[in-house]
Amino acid sequence: MSSRRQKLLPSKNLLPPLRAWDGELTQRLVQAPGEFGLGRVPEKVKPDSTTSMICGFCSTGCSLNIHRKEGEAVNLTPDPDYPVNIGMACPKGWEALAPLDAPDRATVPMIREERAGELKPLQWTEAAKIFCDRMKAVQAEHGKESVAFLSTGQICTEEMAFLGAFAKFGMGVKHGDGNTRQCMATSVVSYKQSFGFDAPPYTYKDFEDSDVIVLVGSNLCIAHPIMWQRVLRNKNNPEIIVIDPRRTETAMEATRHVPILPKSDLRFFYGLANVLISEGWVDREFIEAHTNEFEAFATHVRSYTPERVARHCGIDADDFRQLAELIHRGKRVSFWWTMGVNQGHEAVRTAQAIINLALMTGNIGRPGTGANSITGQCNAMGSRLFSNTTNLLGGHDFAHAPHREKIARIIGVDESKIPQEPSWAYDQIIDGIESGKIKGLWVIATNTAHSWINQSRARRLLDKLDFLVVQDMYHSTETAAHADLVLPAAGWAEKEGTFINSERRIGLVKKVAKAPGQALADFQIFRLLAEQWGEGEMFRKWSSPEAVFRILQKCSEGQPCDVMGIDGYREIDEAGGIQWPLVRGESLDARERRLFSDGRFYTKDEKAIFLYSDPVDPGEVPCGDFPYLLLTGRGSSAQWHTLTRTAKSSVLGLLSTNDPYVEINPEDAERLGIAAHDEVELESRRGAIRLRAVVAPTVVKGQVFVPMHFRCTNILTFAEFDKYSRQPSYKNSSVKVTRL
Ligand code: SF4
Q1: Residue 658 CB neighbour total at 10 angstroms
Q2: Residue 1 has pLDDT above 80, yes or no
Q3: Looking at CB atoms within 10 Å, which of 2, 22, 196, 318 has the fewest?
């Protein structure tokens, strides 16, 4: 372990002109964006009006002031009064308008009449008819369940609810999932099992109030730069502990980096729990009053001694004890995790091992504490409650008859149309294509052919479908290349609705720009298709996003996420976003609110549960011909997911690179005869790719790191899934590295 901000800056040989993956640079980008050309607008353009709205990239949920001239959005600045970002934005936020003007925007519906043929334009009326006729034909031949959808955490809550309701209650589709399965399904299941509901308990103010901040598998500094700024505003001189196999930008800035071996995390946290329990460093009063199963958990972790765990995790046993002591000494300890935990083969139990630490030390429900999952996409949290996939609308249970009855009544749909079980997960839908059970697929605002694990198989299976519809802002995505029908969608800022951010804050998206050509808001596309399908009557009241918001409020009533107390969009706007819950009559005096301050959880007896299992080894480990472990993750603060939007900004292009590269440890590079910028081949059992070498001690010997953003990355990844959440593990593939 290293301590007290011991920096190890990446090699000077890192790629191009500016390195947005340098933590210090990202801070400068946030604090002085003008220096880097971010958000620039020619002097002569003087805006005449300003509208604020939530950013459309990540789950932080910053508010941006969009400046307009003669009705056109010309520039933006971060909103200084919004409680989330307090006047700051990361590079993506500053460049949020740039992707709207890209030349490859989908502007008209397009049809591909032959598999390898060109896409040809057509009118919306024809496109809607083709969509319905062909989906119905697939269902007539193979059954209603043979059509599925794959959606996203990028569209507004009202849109994803419309999609989920229309597909399931209107089209009779049983299986639909979102790309949110790839980033935060683990957190959903962990919270549901441990707390009784999917309820991230925190508010961002907790970053500022902690005296010990434990970041697990989270490169906050570049993945959530504004949250990192909130950490930097902490006046308590906090201990910042980063638990991560890589020396990430955040690890370089931390007071203590614990570079455990990849996927040794579950044993690591059981070991920490064991030290805390055996030293008596637990909060007995809290445990007894507010939890169940602690004694069984204490017995379970007894064999995880510091020596055994340290050996397994590749760290020093004394350092390990010191770490437990640091947690014990903290008065307000907050635990945060993200993809390093969520994308693992035993991710749910790992997240729950973190939750257990917070519970046993009484670090929950108070300022500066919490077991806090940070999610990814701007509206992943909306999807968790209202996509109608894993949960019935409003966090309800498809299998629970009173829940089905309640939702049927609110929606005005016959209860028999509501499935009695949740959808298949993403991987099951993909498997369903292979087995011939899924024949028609509707992909909305996600890029399966790029981001799904073991990509070559996913692409091959997309071509096996009878009918593939892609609904997206761009006709050029890797998935659209496989589509039979492309439906052009408006982007962020070209439509309205709400997003819910990581701290449960509902914020507004507004229409400040006109979508190009005939592109329509996803909301309008769903209305059009529902009408054409013959289910227009079911959605007659779904006349506008705000009308749907009011329906969703009713779905939330009585649930932990109850938002009946919100008086419409205007109140959300005036309040600076509103965190759920806000029940009818509840006052809105606190702008930042956390859960569980009364120690009451959402289980039947209102107690949280200690959950645990025996760890298992990952399905693929480095050996023989594939001796290196491949880690994937966020490349820089200037890149977003599959680059469909961020690659459209020339400024973001200067701050990062779209040329694939791999980080290799200097000792490995020397042994393999690889110098910086050499072309190398990475090969796994699933395929091979070529990249440039970045020689840097950011990875330890025996490991390599490739950003997830490149279209080739997932050719290599090994498809393994957490058994509870079915989230893919993107962080344990084995590869061979060869200099070309
Ligand atoms: Fe947008 Fe996230 Fe950047 Fe904030 S941190 S500006 S929400 S991308």
Answers
A1: 15
A2: no
A3: 318
Which protein residue has the closest C-alpha to ligand 1 atom 2? 58
Tokens read off for 191: 């919270």
What's the pTM?
Answer: 0.95
Q: How far is the CA of 341 from the centre of ligand 1 (A)?
A: 21
Exposed (0-12), middle (13-18) or buried (19+): which is 31, by Cβ within 10 Å?
Answer: exposed
Specify the residue for token string 């269902």: 139
- Contact 99/648 with Cβ under 8 angstroms? yes
pLDDT digits (tens, 9 = 90+) for 204-237: 999 999 999 999 999 999 999 999 999 999 999 9
Q: How far is the CA of 209 from the centre of ligand 1 (A)?
A: 22
What digits encode the pLDDT tens for the residues 398-426? 999 999 999 999 999 999 999 999 899 99
Q: How close is the Cα of 104 to the center of ligand 1, in Å?
A: 24
CA-to-CA distance for 653 and 646, rounded, in angstroms?
Answer: 8
Best residue among 55, 207, 500 to mutate for probing ligand 1, ranked by most atoms within 8 Å of CB: 55
Ligand 1, atom 3: closest residue by C-alpha: 90
Q: Which two tokens stand for residue 215?
A: 């970041």
Beta-sheet strands, E only, within 458-504: 467-472, 485-488, 497-500
In whole angstroms, give the CA distance from residue 555 to residue 345: 34
Q: State how beta strands 175-178 and 147-151 pair.
A: parallel
Report the phi/psi class of residue 426: left, alpha or beta, with left for phi > 0 and alpha for psi in -120 to 50.
alpha
